[in-house]
Backbone:
């Protein structure tokens, strides 16, 4: 890579009106937890060179983050330990601070007499409020860099987009400008005296007051190196059957990158760039880019322009109207949140999907659509179904508390980014799915057996 590659300044925006000062550059690493292919870190390196000041990285640990349990913190900390090692090799210190970031980050910057503060981008309301308050309290310039999206979210569209078909041309017009390779991070002003003792990540994990009943996953190795290995395995062995087989949970035809993308352990732009250079057919490359680029950035757009992305009332008006018209329809089955959580429904296919989520932190994308729609069908009300799906996804999925998850639930249950379909009981005009449709797409008993380890009962 070219170390002198210029960073497109449209990737950054100012969150306050203050100027750069004479002092160290602070990169508040939050959502994009990686050393390579990270526009926020690259922008911080560039700012450090411009100011001829050293660069420091800080990671803030809030008392809790939207109910995340031990499973998620374990995956995150193991990835951060790898990031810290890479930063240390580059002479860049990393510090972890506890408390509300809106308070602790300004205090840290003031103590360091920071010249500029850089953060990565998140559309989630809680993080945006932290940043707004921190930016107001910091005495130097505060920049936000979209290191998550290929096209910066605020540049892709000035409003909430209606559907993939409305955002696709906007992203397509900017794709050539932004879908580029990455330079290497270079920090030139790093005195050895800056480096801290290595962080005791296991010790930090012990100090956290989080739900420890949900144990760490053992089937996935966290971190940048593992994410890169998974990407290359997908491109080399799987991508050429992605278009035809990605909706078959038995086919192992998906990338498996979702947890790594969620924790920022791999860049979607890097993954897209590598996939487009592969020998896979155009059809397969296009199908992957549609999901990784268009659909994922549509979800970011939804959360960025709609602060109530996780609330039923924010669903499209047509969808709310049709769901409420059918809210009193007779349900053939009705389950409590606890019965859903414990996979105690009448449907072995749904139960297998839920067990996969609980036991592994991962659910195949096609099954997650079926899973959410059946929660709608078997809940006391559409609003209750929406809340149950959000709760289960955020608690158990390694990629929970993410725009993709919020948009996915809103699409499945509330017609977001979709259109009205034929009317039917309970669903109204929301798109319908059933087990028979799954049977036509894949070997249902095989999927159930792969999750439960037992032969599936006769379903049809």
Residues:
């Amino acid at each position: 890579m070219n170390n002198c590659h210029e960073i497109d300044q449209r990737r950054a925006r100012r969150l306050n009106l203050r100027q750069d000062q004479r002092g160290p550059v602070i990169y508040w690493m939050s959502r994009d937890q990686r050393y390579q292919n990270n526009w926020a870190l690259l922008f911080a390196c560039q700012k450090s060179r411009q100011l001829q000041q050293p660069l420091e990285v800080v990671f803030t640990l809030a008392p809790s983050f939207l109910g995340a349990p031990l499973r998620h913190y374990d995956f995150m900390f193991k990835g951060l330990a790898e990031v810290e090692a890479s930063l240390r090799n580059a002479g860049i210190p990393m510090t972890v601070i506890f408390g509300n970031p809106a308070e602790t980050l300004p205090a840290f910057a003031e103590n360091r007499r920071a010249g500029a503060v850089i953060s990565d981008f998140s559309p989630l309301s809680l993080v945006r409020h932290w940043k707004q308050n921190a930016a107001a309290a910091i005495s130097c310039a505060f920049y936000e860099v979209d290191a998550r999206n290929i096209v910066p979210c605020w540049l892709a569209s000035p409003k909430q987009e209606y559907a993939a078909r409305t955002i696709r041309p906007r992203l397509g017009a900017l794709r050539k400008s932004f879908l580029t390779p990455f330079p290497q991070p270079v920090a030139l002003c790093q005195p050895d005296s800056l480096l801290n003792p290595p962080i005791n990540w296991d010790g930090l994990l012990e100090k956290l007051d989080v739900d420890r009943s949900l144990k760490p996953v053992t089937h996935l190795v966290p971190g940048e190196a593992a994410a890169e290995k998974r990407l290359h395995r997908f491109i080399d062995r799987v991508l050429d059957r992605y278009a035809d087989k990605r909706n078959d949970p038995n086919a192992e035809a998906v990338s498996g990158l979702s947890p790594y993308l969620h924790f920022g352990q791999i860049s979607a732009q890097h993954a897209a760039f590598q996939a487009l250079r592969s020998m896979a057919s155009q059809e397969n490359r296009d199908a992957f880019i549609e999901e990784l680029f268009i659909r994922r950035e549509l979800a970011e757009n939804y959360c960025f322009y709609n602060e109530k992305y996780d609330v039923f009332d924010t669903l499209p008006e047509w969808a709310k109207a049709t769901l409420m018209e059918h809210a009193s329809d007779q349900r053939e089955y009705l389950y409590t949140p606890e019965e859903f959580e414990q996979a105690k429904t009448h449907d072995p296919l749904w139960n297998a999907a839920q067990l996969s989520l609980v036991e592994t932190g991962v659910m195949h994308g096609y099954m997650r659509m079926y899973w959410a729609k059946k929660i709608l069908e078997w809940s006391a009300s559409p609003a209750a179904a929406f809340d149950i799906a959000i709760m289960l996804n955020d608690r158990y999925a390694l990629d929970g508390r993410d725009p993709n998850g919020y948009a996915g639930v809103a699409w499945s249950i509330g017609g977001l980014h979709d259109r009205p379909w034929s009317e039917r009981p309970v669903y109204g005009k929301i798109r319908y799915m059933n087990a028979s449709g799954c049977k036509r797409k894949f070997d249902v008993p095989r999927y159930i057996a792969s999750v439960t380890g037992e032969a599936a009962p006769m379903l049809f």
User: Anything to note?
Assistant: Residues 150-181+223-307 form a domain with the Serine Threonine Protein Phosphatase 5, Tetratricopeptide repeat fold (CATH 1.25.40.80). The chain has three domains: 1-148, 150-181+223-307, 312-452. The longest helix spans residues 282-305.
